[in-house]
From TrEMBL:
<feature type="domain" description="Methionyl/Valyl/Leucyl/Isoleucyl-tRNA synthetase anticodon-binding">
    <location>
        <begin position="679"/>
        <end position="799"/>
    </location>
</feature>
<feature type="short sequence motif" description="'HIGH' region">
    <location>
        <begin position="41"/>
        <end position="51"/>
    </location>
</feature>
<dbReference type="InterPro" id="IPR015413">
    <property type="entry name" value="Methionyl/Leucyl_tRNA_Synth"/>
</dbReference>
<dbReference type="Pfam" id="PF00133">
    <property type="entry name" value="tRNA-synt_1"/>
</dbReference>
<feature type="short sequence motif" description="'KMSKS' region">
    <location>
        <begin position="611"/>
        <end position="615"/>
    </location>
</feature>
<feature type="domain" description="Leucyl-tRNA synthetase editing">
    <location>
        <begin position="220"/>
        <end position="407"/>
    </location>
</feature>
<dbReference type="GO" id="GO:0005829">
    <property type="term" value="C:cytosol"/>
</dbReference>
<dbReference type="InterPro" id="IPR009080">
    <property type="entry name" value="tRNAsynth_Ia_anticodon-bd"/>
</dbReference>
<dbReference type="InterPro" id="IPR009008">
    <property type="entry name" value="Val/Leu/Ile-tRNA-synth_edit"/>
</dbReference>
<keyword id="KW-0436">Ligase</keyword>
<dbReference type="GO" id="GO:0005524">
    <property type="term" value="F:ATP binding"/>
</dbReference>
<keyword id="KW-0648">Protein biosynthesis</keyword>
<dbReference type="InterPro" id="IPR002300">
    <property type="entry name" value="aa-tRNA-synth_Ia"/>
</dbReference>
<feature type="domain" description="Aminoacyl-tRNA synthetase class Ia">
    <location>
        <begin position="421"/>
        <end position="577"/>
    </location>
</feature>
<feature type="binding site">
    <location>
        <position position="614"/>
    </location>
    <ligand>
        <name>ATP</name>
    </ligand>
</feature>
<dbReference type="InterPro" id="IPR014729">
    <property type="entry name" value="Rossmann-like_a/b/a_fold"/>
</dbReference>
<dbReference type="GO" id="GO:0004823">
    <property type="term" value="F:leucine-tRNA ligase activity"/>
</dbReference>
């Protein structure tokens, strides 16, 4: 039939793949293995266009690799713990588990409707005890190995909701839900020793040459290795019994530009000075009200309290620097104390301008600028040291080394390596997460839950009508006997950060026995993930935590892999136009037609093209689109036009165009009757497409692959009937199979081919046909035509001469004698004078 019946074909082939287990990955396969993974979704309720784009890319690669003879693991699961389920519980009075599982069921059906080549037999959800129980086992193994510890640490506390807030839940210093001013509170929390691996995580980045440069740089900066110096400032007057304190700097070269010293609000010296000093107490309390997010501290107004004390400059005993307590100095970084150099640090400059402190340049980008004044911007670039006694004329790096050498020789400081990376705090005071498998006993301390008592299962009967952690106020759950001494004890009521759940799910996909987290040998047969695809929003934390967790498992001997993802691709977003009505309210695309509001006829203002988001109402739900146009048209749209790393604008005309093209493919892949004859030009185009599309898919250049399919389709349509044309039309089915698999299966069956196109081999290309323009060269011996050669157009003279002499016929004629002379006319002939 002329039209591709997508409704029938989609359902039919999805059913066939499922019933035949086509995409089930076999652990014991003799084929080489390939692991293709997309970041698993959070089960928010519906699949969105971003998911469709992400999973379509992975799907094309997975299907292509199968055709290339690999045993492919391409699994799917659910990152199912987290806040939104608890929010739904509070707002809609539905249990987080019910909400989550219903969402998973709905989203699973939606994904199946798009025909992804997924191994559903390995599906997992992190909220189920068979997953999180194994995570608890791993957590305890890491605990036993000393990679987990507990310490007191500051959190953002919402005094109205009586809950701890994540940094992103603090907006302008207020709780996102309650609007209350957030306080800093100290709580005992669990930490994972990611800092133990800082050097290795940094070094490992060098091996990840199939990761985007940008992501590697982001990770490098997050780990933040820097060379610095610690040194001691002597106080001119003691603070309580304290007479000195240490500062940490990454810029010892700027020491002659110092104009003040500053300590954190919770520094012991600030604490000592605050006794009997209400003004300082008030200042310290004010500092504590600011959140802990670094970005917040960066943007917050710099404030200080002048202690009236001063410190002695270590390079000049007569030079005194005033000592402040400052809100931008953090207690848990470096030593909680700094020297301020306003000319070369922006925070220090803002601070100095506010408190009228001296600003002295000590680094000059050029000799002419040695005395150039500093305006509103600190100079942080390279240059030569000025105004700095024995350092003058040195470069920044030389001066650092010189100051460190002097400090070490004189005994007031020493060089250090410092990391920006902190240990990973994993405690969350929430219900919907993996319970931390620890029991607190008054006599024994923190006792691990014995392995045979895992999993520690979340209680079902919890209430969300009052704020706080439901686990904490559950009447019975936390009351248990100590596994060690048998006395009454209390369960840990914190749950794990959901980033823990996503730090090893890819290993569990590879192997999921019921009695342990994974089987080492099986997991290693699949790992590492060869191609990981996901959003750039996970470029730092998720990827770093997964790299850490894998290394931690490697260290305790559980797996012989350190880098979990050898290839990484971060895809762009799906965008859409935005619309507003005359009153300035956002309108959804369905409410708009031809520039007017459908319901009222009022004119519409078309706004910017932006990432699809609920808040701007510019979301297009893939569900109905798939029904209307078919899975293949939607998949084709996702791959077309934009390079996959760039944003892709969703348009109605775009999807219509894709639908038309799918129908065109349906017609083209039906070569009517067998025709005779060769069409060299079309052969060449076909083989170029075979080779080129393979290269493009391998490089995730899907839009280029799509363009090549278009070119080939045009060429086939234009060609006269011939055996070449028939072959090209038949081969085209396999070339588009990874992208539009339903159409391809249908066309494959129509051609009378055996089995599934999903199981067919990728067509082979003939390298000889890839040569662009060929010419026929006449080869003469003593003026007589003896042979012809096919050579690339424009081939150089010496190459043609060599080809001619290597020809069998010619060699026979010359009988080993060297030619007297060879005359070459490029692109035409070679005449050998014997
Ligand atoms: C003097 C100086 C001069 C600095 C200069 C910078 C530029 P990164 O690179 O992020 O590691 N610092 C040290 N401890 C701090 C703390 N607890 N809270 C806030 N700031 C702190 O930053 C290191 C620099 O941050 C250190 O180097 C110190 O300021 C500041 F031209 O020392 B610097
Ligand atoms: Zn005990």
């Amino acid at each position: 039939s002329a039209r591709f019946n997508h409704l029938k074909a989609d359902a039919h082939w999805q059913g066939v793949w499922e019933s035949q287990g086509t995409f089930q990955a076999r652990d014991d396969s003799p084929k080489p293995k390939s692991y293709v993974l997309e970041m698993f979704p959070y089960p928010s309720g519906r699949i969105h266009m971003g998911h469709v784009r992400n999973y379509t890319m992975g799907d094309v690669l997975a299907r292509y690799r199968r055709m290339k003879g690999f045993e492919v693991l391409h699994p799917m699961g659910w990152d199912a713990f987290g806040m939104p389920a608890e929010n739904a519980a509070m707002e809609k009075k539905v249990h987080p588990g019910d909400w989550t599982r219903a969402n998973i069921a709905a989203m699973r059906e939606q994904l199946k409707r798009i025909g992804f080549a997924l191994d559903w037999s390995r599906e997992l959800a992190t909220c189920e005890p068979d997953y999180y129980g194994q995570e608890q086992a791993l957590f305890l193994d890491l605990y036993a190995a000393g990679l987990v510890y507990r310490k007191e640490s500051a959190v953002n506390w919402d005094p109205v909701d009586m809950t701890v807030l994540a940094n992103e839940q603090v907006i302008d210093g207020r709780g996102w839900r309650s609007g209350a001013l957030v306080e800093r509170r100290k709580l005992n929390q669990w930490f994972l020793k990611i800092t133990d691996f800082a050097d290795d995580l940094l070094e490992g980045l060098k091996t990840l040459d199939q990761w985007p440069e940008k992501v590697r740089t982001m990770q490098e900066n997050w780990i933040g290795k820097s060379q610095g110096m610690r040194f001691t400032f002597e106080l001119d007057t003691p603070a309580g019994n304290l007479t000195s304190f240490d500062v940490f700097t990454t810029r010892p070269d700027t020491l002659f530009g110092a104009s003040f010293a500053a300590i954190a609000a919770d520094h012991p010296i600030a604490q000592a000075l605050s006794a009997g000093n209400p003004a300082l107490q008030a200042f310290i309390a004010d500092c504590k009200r600011t959140g802990t997010a670094a970005a917040e501290i960066e943007t917050a107004e710099k404030k200080g309290y002048d202690t009236g004390l001063s410190v002695v400059h270590p390079l000049d005993p007569d030079w005194k620097l005033p000592l402040f307590v400052a809100n931008f100095v953090l207690m848990d970084y470096g030593t909680g104390a700094v020297f301020g150099c306003p000319a070369h640090d922006q925070r220090d400059l803002d601070f100095a301008r506010k408190y009228a402190l001296p600003v002295k340049r000590v680094v000059a980008p050029s000799p002419e600028e040695a005395a150039a004044p500093i305006g509103d911007e600190a100079y942080v670039g390279p240059g030569r040291i000025v105004n700095s006694a024995f350092l003058d004329g040195l470069s920044v790096e030389e001066a650092k080394a010189a100051v460190i050498a002097r400090a070490e020789a004189e005994g007031w400081g020493q060089g250090t390596t410092v990391w920006r990376l902190r240990d990973w705090g994993v405690s969350r005071q929430r219900y919907w997460g993996t319970p931390i498998p620890i029991i607190h006993c008054e006599g024994c301390g923190a006792v691990p839950v014995p392995h045979d008592q895992l999993p520690v299962v979340l209680p079902e009967d919890v209430a969300f009508d009052i704020p706080g952690n439901p686990l904490d106020r559950h009447p019975t759950w936390k009351h248990v006997d100590c596994p060690s001494c048998g006395e009454p004890a209390r369960r840990e009521t914190d749950t794990l950060d959901t980033f823990v759940d996503s730090s090893w799910y890819f290993i569990r996909f590879a192997s999921q026995p019921s009695d342990k987290p994974f089987d080492r040998a099986v997991a290693e047969s699949w790992m590492p993930v060869g191609q990981y695809i996901g959003g750039v929003e996970h470029a730092i934390l998720h990827l770093l935590y997964a790299r850490f967790w894998t290394r931690a498992l490697e260290r305790i001997g559980r797996i012989g892999v350190k880098e979990p993802f050898t290839g990484l691709f971060t895809q762009g977003m799906v965008t859409h136009e935005t619309y507003k009505d005359p009153a300035g309210q956002w309108l959804s695309p369905e409410e708009v037609s031809d520039g007017i509001v459908v319901a009222t006829g009022a004119p519409v203002t078309v706004g910017r093209i932006e990432k699809m988001s609920k808040s701007k109402k510019n979301v297009v739900d893939p569900g109905p689109i798939v029904e209307q146009y078919g899975a293949d048209a939607v998949r084709w749209f996702m791959l077309s036009d934009s390079p996959p790393e760039r944003d892709l604008e969703w348009t109605e005309s775009g999807i219509e165009g894709c639908w038309r093209f799918v129908n065109r493919l349906w017609r083209i892949t039906d070569p009517a009757e067998a025709a005779e004859g060769e069409d060299k030009d079309l052969d060449r185009k076909l083989h170029k497409a075979i080779a080129g599309i393979a290269v493009d898919i391998e490089a995730l250049g899907f839009n280029r692959a799509v363009a090549k399919v278009h070119e080939l389709a045009n060429a086939i349509e234009k060609a006269q009937p011939s055996a070449s044309r028939t072959a090209a039309a038949r081969t085209l089915v396999r070339l588009v199979a990874p992208m539009v698999p339903h159409l391809a299966e249908e066309a494959w069956a129509r051609l009378g081919e055996q089995g599934l196109v999903a199981d067919a081999a990728w067509p082979a290309h003939d390298p000889a046909l890839l040569v662009d323009d060929e010419v026929t060269i006449a080869v003469q011996v003593n003026g007589k035509l003896r042979d012809t050669l096919t050579a690339p157009k424009g081939a150089p003279k010496d190459a043609l001469e060599r080809m001619a002499l290597e020809s069998e016929k010619i060699a026979r004629l010359l009988e080993g004698a060297a030619p007297r002379k060879v005359i070459v006319v490029p692109d035409r002939l070679v005449n050998i004078v014997a």
